[in-house]
Amino acid sequence: MTLLSADRDLLSTVSPSRALRALPVTALTVDLTIIVGVGAVAALGRERLGIFDNSAEVVDTLGLAAPFMLLGWVLAIAVAGGYRRNVFGAGTEEYKRVANASLVAAGLVGVGCYLARFSLSRGFFLLAFVVGVPALLLGRFVVRRALHSARRHGALRQRVLIAGTSAHVDEVATVLRREPWLGYHVVGALTPVRDLSEETSTGIPVLGNTDEATSIAKHAGVDVIFFAGGSLGSGTQMRRAVWDLEHQDVQVVVAPSVTDVSGERIRVRPVGGLPLMHIDPPTSTDASRWGKRLFDVAGSLSLLLLFAPLLLVISVLIKKDDGGPILFRQVRIGRDGREFDCFKFRTMVTDAEDLLARLHAEQGYEAGLFKMKDDPRVTKAGKWLRRFSLDELPQLINVFLGDMSLVGPRPPLPREVATYDLDAHRRLRVRPGMTGLWQVSGRSDLSWSEAIRLDLYYVDNWSMLQDLAILARTFSAVFGSRGAY
């Protein structure tokens, strides 16, 4: 199958996003502005604070040394690759390059002044780098957030062509569509010659065959071409494809059939010119060790003491609402399939379980976690408790007792576990949590399959830093009431 002539004419009129080429210039402008501002703050701070009073006066050296020092700082970032287009938008590589280049610049300035016996004000030097490095990282963070926001609104995106079998194309396209902040817009697919379909199962138009990758990439005006599984038959074909694309300003990305694996578990080691991808084992066992448990005990106890007045107020309101019990106990499934009583503030009428079967029939429920908006079983007090997830505060008791963790997959019901397939059972390898990736990524707005995917990602890629990041994101997700009902 080849690209239709009409499609060729249409796609050839669309040029790659030129605004993306301005990202390095934007980052450079931001860095220069921050560094100049930091230089002024350091000079003023040195004079006002009187740091290192015995050092040379700033006015004697600033006019000569400061411009070279600040420009050298920017040059160090450039040499470290801090302005390359492939570092913007995702990952920690951008921040690492800026931080490392700043440390190198500080070292070179210090050594250079020592060897040249130049009396640079130590107070100015200290303030410039102590304030400057965090300010540069913050500036890059702001630029990245602005870039992500623009991409979510359809701007500053890269046109992507995916080559491979239909199944592999759909797999890669699903990931790219799931993360719109990456800025990848899939315009078409290239499939092997034996595949005669006009589009993949997810509706991506097939523009031609994989052996026509270079010519179609040129006519389609794409920025990036992904080579997925089944795209090329040998390493020689890949090398020739890269050669053909080197003069067309098209980025080549190899997408192996590896998804939902964190970067910390992946290491690429070239051996004899062959890049080998090493994947470390899943970290689910680390999530059950004493460090996480100690954090859970200390955290739950501290939060129980902190929220004690709020817990008392909520208890009074629930009791005053309809006179029923304050707490609701429900059997949930914990780590390794063990049952436990999960505590929550009661937010439903006392006969809620009796009404559940009727609601299942009305809503067409079959499997998974049952959630619905405007649930008639929810009480007056329960509505605002659920809105801000305050009904789950008693689960801190479960965390303290060891049934749950502060962060982890949601504790499922026995009937939900009964419907689990082999993959879903893997989420039971760790303690369930009060919050997790599912909650901070949309909560009830997510589909059941997407919730399972996020839980499995957490189980296989656990880290303490990820737990802290989820706890930080929980605050905004809860108080924004996004996806809570």
TrEMBL record:
Major subcellular location class: membrane
Sequence ranges assigned to domain FHA in this UniProt record: 331-390
Keyword list, A-Z: Membrane, Transferase, Transmembrane, Transmembrane helix
Cellular localisation: Membrane
Entries under PROSITE patterns matching the protein: FHA_DOMAIN (PS50006)
MF terms (GO), sorted A to Z: transferase activity
Record field: transmembrane: 20-44, 64-83, 95-117, 123-143, 294-318
Membrane topology according to the record: Multi-pass membrane protein
Domain of life: Bacteria
InterPro entries for the chain: Bact_transf, EPS_sugar_tfrase, FHA_dom
Pfam family, one: CoA_binding_3
Sequence similarity: Belongs to the bacterial sugar transferase family.
Name listed for the protein in its UniProt record: Sugar transferase
